[in-house]
Fold this sequence. Notes:
- This protein is an alpha/beta fold.
- The chain is built from 11 helices and 12 strands.
- Helix 2 (78-91) packs parallel to helix 4.
Amino acid sequence: MHYTGTIFRPPFEARSLLLQVxxxxxxxxxxxxxxxxxxxxQIEPMEQIEQDLKEAGYYYPNTRRVFLExxxxxxxxxxxxxxxxxxxxxxxxxxxxxxxxxxxxxIRSKSSADLRxxxxxxxxDLNIGVESGYxxxxxxxxxxxxxxxxxxxxxxxxxxxxxFGLNIILGCAGSGNGEANALATADLINRTQPGLIFTGxxxxxxGCPLYEDMQNGTxxxxxxxxxxxxxxxxxxxxDLKFCEYFALHPSNIVRADLLxxxxxxxxxxxxxxxxxxMTQDILMSRPSRAGEGGIIL
Length: 297
């Protein structure tokens, strides 16, 4: 199959067929992100997409799940997504879920009728980078939406019968603002009831504004202790009907993949136990990072 540039997918889409329909990210201005820096956004030709699906149908005829690439394929017009979904079902008749990355702005561009139509075609399980419910953090990260706008658009997905997961960044409000960020984010999550929460901690690489801000002190990162305190406040304030808490990204201090609310106390215990096992010097230190923001303890 044909791929252009680096392909990114959530860890939980490891067994999905990856079908590239866009290159890069249509927004590509988030303060913390380097994933698509220097990559011009473009839409793959339908002829190329169909060729890839013909190949997938030959080699993987029993595919059940497809993840569309790259940064935010939900930016495509409803007519384009409809054509792609229909081609997927033509060449891969057992597919029941077509998932992808999406943004609040992508959702906002579609009518409620559009969302219902796309859901009827198998488009579901959108992975959405809301990052936070704290408006000052959203503004700093240049997310192009407010908390209330996120709530409104996520409710529209629910009304259309579409499931979604939310990406959350611990520490995105900076040192000293962890409680405010945790409480606002918990409120956003409780009001929208996602099926999955995908967490990580705030980190950066050269080539994005956050990296420069961290180097010159404009943005002060959480200490390890602040990260743990923020996560405990977040989890303590979650009131969910059913949700997977997926914290296996390497940037997490506490690694966990648990179901809420069933395993909420277990998750809180893991956070508190992790903090109790650290010296005061470690808790007060800033994280040392490896690849993909992995924290070295």
